[in-house]
Amino acid sequence: MNKPRTGHIRITADPTVVDAVLTALRANPDLSIVRVSKAYPDTDGRQRLYVRVR
Q1: Distance between CA 46 and CA 54 in Å, rounded?
Q2: Long-range contact pairs involving 31-34 (C-beta distance under 8 Å, separation at least 24)
Q3: pLDDT digit string (tens) for 6-35?
Q4: Any idea what DSSP says for residue 42?
Q5: Higher per-residue pLDDT: 4 or 7
Q6: Which residues pair with 47 in a beta bridge?
Q7: How many CB atoms within 10 Å of residue 11?
Q8: Strands, DSSP E only, in the chain?
């Protein structure tokens, strides 16, 4: 039996870009989002996004 493939997406960008990427991933019926993590790592306001998809 084949296991489903898992991928990791990591970006650090402006919060509006992060939200747009997450919205696009959620809209894709071929992907199943397993985990989402958002954090503000820098003082410049950029947001870090980590998504694990299957």
Answers
A1: 26
A2: 32/4, 34/6
A3: 789 999 999 999 999 999 999 999 888 989
A4: S
A5: 7
A6: 13
A7: 14
A8: 7-13, 33-39, 47-53
